[in-house]
């Protein structure tokens, strides 16, 4: 028995040595030719065809819609037969779950009496990028296997059936998400993605948004027209997207408006933080990773990056910045390394997104990737934005989020206090016309904070707050008027001083002129005296 084991071992070693020598010394083109013929021989005895659906298409820029749709379809049919499943909760506060095929799993499906086999595979390749945290490049795919005699049925009917059912399942199980972009330095980490998300379940809607009714209805009609306008946008030759600019003081409901728009259309939200984006190229990659039926948001865009300053910065500012960086490199040996990695002097990664890159993100060629996207900018100071950024065509609709009006107050009273009318409403209406108060401040005064205080107490709190705000506004106006008067008095005093100085100067010049004239007259008199003496001393003729 031991001799048999030794013979087996020696035979295996000889075969492995022979195979190694064959691979090393046999001509490459001949080995490829033999491999090709071997595959043809295997195919002759293997009567099945395989169709592969990879997760990514092209240069790994976008996920294949076919892959995602097939994944939804297989998740529905694999829960009862697959041995290994992955679990994804539909909602955080819901017991229902969504099961999906795990990697390297197989399931069988029957279509018109024909058995079809699906398998899930994953290929892991070493990352080609240079990083402190190298991660493997994972590529997943689904493979459909069926007998060759059913080729026509599968290619013409079954695949279309799978895609149709997968889209219907996705629509039923759709979980809306709130995304935020990861810092670009984390993209190369293991299993890292460009966007992170959480379940989006915000209760805000147009019914709870404090705004004038007419403006609100106009926005809703505009959103409905956009969501149903795929054919219209194709006909006019424009990408299926629309831009909204929300501007107004803090507390006027800009963020609430964004949520209401997303809830109204049942869209996802992508909250884009520009300061974590390294350059324009990464900004494009983030855009490509967004999905259709989404709202892409840049809040407080006037504070995100100094985009306007990049266009207006002079040579002195650039020279000063270069000198600071040069001095930092001399003092800190790591400064040069950080600079090469795209980091600033503080060690944080410095964003090099330009105004041009952001404009291309909004309505450039790359903005046409995908469709049915809404882009929303919000700002407290619209005058600080570059006109090129907010012109019509980029920001199609400008919405001013203003102070609370009486219509908005009545909606807040109905939502917060369940009141349609009250005797104090008239007084509040007059105060709202005379005083500026944001909807957020009005809502805070209307909120019931204890059980022992009723709606009337909240209304009186609001009246008191409005009266205080009115007094503060009048005091500010009086202070501004006093400041203007002080400036006018100061200017008058300066004018009087200037007039007195001018008069003194004129007087001084007049005295100087008189003195000069007296001096000239004295000189003349002396000259005339000398001439008279000369005439008297001369002999008579």
UniProtKB/TrEMBL annotation:
Q: Name one GO molecular function term.
A: ATP binding
- Keyword Hydrolase (UniProt): yes
Q: Which CDD domains match?
A: RecA-like_BCS1
Q: Which residues form the signal peptide?
A: none
Q: Which residues form the AAA+ ATPase domain?
A: 240-405
Catalytic activity field: ATP + H2O = ADP + phosphate + H(+)
Per the entry, which co-factors are needed? Mg(2+)
What SUPFAM superfamilies does its record include? P-loop containing nucleoside triphosphate hydrolases (SSF52540)
Q: Alphabetically list the UniProt keywords.
A: Hydrolase, Magnesium
Annotated segments matching region Disordered: 309-333, 516-541
Compositionally biased residues, Basic and acidic residues: 315-333, 516-534
Q: Which GO terms describe its biological process?
A: response to stress
Pfam families of this UniProt entry? Answer: AAA, AAA_assoc, AAA_lid_At3g28540
> Which family does the UniProt entry place this protein in?
Belongs to the AAA ATPase family. BCS1 subfamily.
PANTHER family attached to this UniProt entry = BCS1 AAA-TYPE ATPASE
Name used for this protein in its record: AAA+ ATPase domain-containing protein
- Species source reads Linum tenue
């Amino acid at each position: 028995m031991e001799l048999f084991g030794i013979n087996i071992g020696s035979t295996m070693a000889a075969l492995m040595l022979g195979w190694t020598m064959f691979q090393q010394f046999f001509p490459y083109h001949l080995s490829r030719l033999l491999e090709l013929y071997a595959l043809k021989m295997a195919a002759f005895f293997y009567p099945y065809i395989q169709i592969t659906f990879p997760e990514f298409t092209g240069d790994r820029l976008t996920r294949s819609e076919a892959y995602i749709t097939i994944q939804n379809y297989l998740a529905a049919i694999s829960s009862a037969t697959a041995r290994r499943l992955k679990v994804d909760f539909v909602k955080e506060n819901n017991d229902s779950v969504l099961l999906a095929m795990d990697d390297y799993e197989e399931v069988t499906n029957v279509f018109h009496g024909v058995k079809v086999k699906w398998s899930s595979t994953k290929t892991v390749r070493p990352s080609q990028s240079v990083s402190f945290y190298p991660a493997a490049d994972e590529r997943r795919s689904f493979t459909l296997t069926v007998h060759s005699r059913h080729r026509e049925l599968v290619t013409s009917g079954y695949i279309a059936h799978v895609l149709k059912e997968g889209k219907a399942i996705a629509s039923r199980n759709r979980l809306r998400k709130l995304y935020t972009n990861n810092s670009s330095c984390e993209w190369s980490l293991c299993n890292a993605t460009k966007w992170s998300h959480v379940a989006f379940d915000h209760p805000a809607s147009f019914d709870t948004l404090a705004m004038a009714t007419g403006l609100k209805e106009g926005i809703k009609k505009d959103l409905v027209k956009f969501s149903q306008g795929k054919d219209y946008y194709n006909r006019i030759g424009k990408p299926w997207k629309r831009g909204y600019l929300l501007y107004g003081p803090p507390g006027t409901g800009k963020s609430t408006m964004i949520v209401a728009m997303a809830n109204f259309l049942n869209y996802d939200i992508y909250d884009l933080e520009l300061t974590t984006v390294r350059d324009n190229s990464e900004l494009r990659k983030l855009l490509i990773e967004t999905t259709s039926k989404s709202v892409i948001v840049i809040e407080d865009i006037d504070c995100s990056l100094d985009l306007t300053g990049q266009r207006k910065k002079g040579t002195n500012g650039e020279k000063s910045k270069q000198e600071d960086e040069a001095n930092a490199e001399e003092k800190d040996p790591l400064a040069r390394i950080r600079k090469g990695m795209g980091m600033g002097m503080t060690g944080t990664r410095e964003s090099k997104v330009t105004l041009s890159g952001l404009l291309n993100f909004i309505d450039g060629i790359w903005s046409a990737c995908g469709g049915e996207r809404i882009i929303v900018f919000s700002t407290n100071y619209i005058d600080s934005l570059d006109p090129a950024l907010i012109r019509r065509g980029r920001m199609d609709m400008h919405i001013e989020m203003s102070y609370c009006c009486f219509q908005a107050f009545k909606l807040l009273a109905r939502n917060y206090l369940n009141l349609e009318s009250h005797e104090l409403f008239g007084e509040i209406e007059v105060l709202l016309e005379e005083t500026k108060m944001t909807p957020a401040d009005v809502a805070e005064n209307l909120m019931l904070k204890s059980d022992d205080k009723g709606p009337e107490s909240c209304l009186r709190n609001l009246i008191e707050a409005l009266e205080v705000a009115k007094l503060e506004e009048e005091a500010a106006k009086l202070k501004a008027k006093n400041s203007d008067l002080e400036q006018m008095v100061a200017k008058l005093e300066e004018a009087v001083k200037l007039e007195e100085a001018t008069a003194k100067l004129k007087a001084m010049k007049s005295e100087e002129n008189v003195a000069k004239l007296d001096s000239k007259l004295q000189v003349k008199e002396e000259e005339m005296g000398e001439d008279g003496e000369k005439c008297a001393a001369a002999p008579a003729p």
